[in-house]
Design goal:
Length: 216
């Protein structure tokens, strides 16, 4: 696909806006995925390109939390491989669906996540730190695996959900936010590997979008 200056400018602006909104209320993918579809990318390529951009943004955020000591790598070690595999499976599924099914499905998912984000504006904002049962922690692990699958298949809203689950498991907000960044980065990278294997990543658009998201 030939590069279009107008498309690059539009992705730069919308990437910045999407990241800015994501930092405030979450759901930046609700802007970046439609933006990639609008510049003419096929559905699978739009999602794959968004994974590249999201990985750049999440890497920056995760390193910030890591330097602040808010990422517990040791505690997340058992679940990271499962989230990684779940995301790869989700990304594989999306390549099995034809575009005529995938495009309306993406629109439906975008609307669903948008409605949920509006209704749950305070998602992940409750501060906790309470002790939880082992059973509740294992349920949290299962939810994170499911979120990995969802992130590989689609993605928007995953960051918010991945903050909510650690809070559900007893982490305080800052710990949950830091751990969510590492989990989200792992799921982004896992899905990106699959999209790269299938050749469904537009590097130029993805890098431009990703850099604008880092700035945003």
């Amino acid at each position: 696909m030939d590069l279009d200056i107008f498309n690059l400018v539009m992705l730069t602006v919308l990437g910045f806006i999407g990241a800015f909104i994501n930092a405030i209320v979450r759901g930046g993918g609700l802007i970046t995925v439609p933006a990639l579809l609008a510049v003419g990318l096929p559905p699978a390529t739009a999602i794959g390109t968004n994974k590249l951009a999201a990985a750049l943004g999440n890497l920056t955020s995760m390193l910030t939390f890591l330097r602040a000591g808010k990422v517990n790598v040791r505690q997340l070690a058992p679940i990271l491989p499962l989230v990684f595999i779940g995301s790869m499976c989700g990304a594989l599924v999306i390549h099995l669906l034809p575009s005529e099914i995938l495009r309306p499905l993406i629109i439906l998912l975008l609307v669903a996540v948008l409605i949920y984000s509006i209704l749950k504006k305070d998602l992940g904002q409750v501060r906790t730190g309470q002790r939880v049962s082992s059973r509740k922690k294992w349920l949290g692990y299962l939810l994170l695996i499911g979120l990995g699958l969802y992130d590989g298949f689609f993605g928007p809203g995953t960051g918010s959900f991945m903050i909510f689950v650690p809070i559900f498991m007893g982490f305080d907000f800052m710990q949950a936010a830091g751990n969510a960044k590492l989990l989200n980065l792992a799921s982004n990278l896992a899905a990106l590997i699959v999209f790269l294997f299938h050749g469904t990543v537009h590097f130029s658009y993805g890098i431009v979008l990703g850099l604008s998201m880092v700035v945003g």
